[in-house]
Write a structure and sequence with these properties.
- With 244 residues, the protein is α/β, with parallel strands linked by helices.
- The chain contains ten helices and twelve strands.
- It has helices at residues 10-22, 33-40, 59-70, 85-93, 106-120, 122-126, 155-165, 174-182, 192-204, 227-243, and strands at residues 2-6, 26-30, 47-50, 76-80, 98-101, 129-132, 135-138, 143-146, 149-151, 172-173, 212-217, 221-226.
- The chain has a five-stranded parallel beta sheet with strand order 2-1-3-4-5, with helices on both faces.
- Helix 4 (85-93) links the parallel strand 4 and strand 5 (98-101).
- The longest helix is centred in the last third of the chain and has 17 residues, at 227-243.
- It starts with a strand and ends with a helix.
- This is Phosphate regulon transcriptional regulatory protein PhoB.
- Residues 127-226 form the OmpR/PhoB-type domain.
């Protein structure tokens, strides 16, 4: 999972990053709340680990801003030196999923983060298979089939496909995709992602007859759409317009 960390104190920030990286997560650390907010306006993550008291943006205001951009599904854990009852209660009242005070035991942090991620993304933690229309993914064997026919993918292609089919309908930014598939942050412009996406469309026949569309999202990244859900949304919008 890709986790954004905002923590004012550099030592605490490095400790949080170290603990979560050791769990296999990709971390994007920030020491400034405004930089975090600007970055996440164009980037996607799976979880937020935030300091409650920012130097320029208070925790409640920061959480509202990030929720508005990233959606309500993204779990938010506050890890802060401010462990007062007042701050904890206020954090939960504005939408926090959990709150712990510093210093925090690494094993406790790992347990809380994993619990929140399991709750937010149960399919990725509880199921070892993904079934979506004619597509079947066996996570143990890293194998995929379409209409029952195995499709041979490279390790990178499989990771990319599994990422999209684990996030149907969700916009994934380019840096998010690069971090989760290639294992490092994207710092320069590259056509690598586009080339792999184009090849994946052909290999897995991600097209209308199979019920899915893998589309680019302007100035962001890509989104895998289930066409039935897309059509239902359009039908609903049309009905609302007619009744208005």
């Amino acid at each position: 999972m890709r986790i954004a960390i905002f923590q004012r104190d550099a030592d605490h920030r490095q400790q949080l990053e170290r603990v979560l990286t050791q769990c296999g997560h990709a971390c994007v650390p920030f020491g400034d709340a405004l930089t975090l907010a600007r970055t996440l306006a164009a980037s996607t993550v799976d979880m937020l680990v935030l300091d409650w008291q920012g130097s320029q943006v208070a925790g409640a205001e920061l959480l509202r801003t990030l929720r508005a951009v990233n959606g309500s599904q993204i779990p938010v854990l506050f890890v802060s030196e401010d462990a007062s009852d007042e701050s904890v209660v206020r954090a939960f009242s504005v939408g926090a999923d959990d709150y712990v005070g510093l210093p925090v035991c690494p094993s406790v942090l790992r347990a809380r983060v994993n619990a929140l991620l399991r709750r937010a993304f149960p399919d990725r933690y509880e199921n070892m298979t993904i079934d979506a229309g004619p597509y079947h993914f066996d996570m143990r064997c890293q194998a995929v089939s379409v209409h029952g026919k195995p499709v041979l993918l490279s390790t990178t292609q499989y990771r990319l496909a599994a990422l999209f089919f684990s996030n149907i309908g969700r916009v994934l930014s380019r840096d998010h995709i690069y971090a989760m598939v290639w294992g490092r942050e994207l710092h320069t412009l590259t056509r690598t992602i586009d080339s792999h996406v184009s090849r994946l469309r052909l290999l897995l026949e991600i097209e209308t007859p199979n019920g899915f569309r893998l589309q680019p999202v302007y100035k962001s990244g890509y989104r895998l759409l289930r066409l039935q859900d897309d059509n239902e949304a359009l039908a609903t919008e049309g009905a609302e317009c007619e009744s208005a």
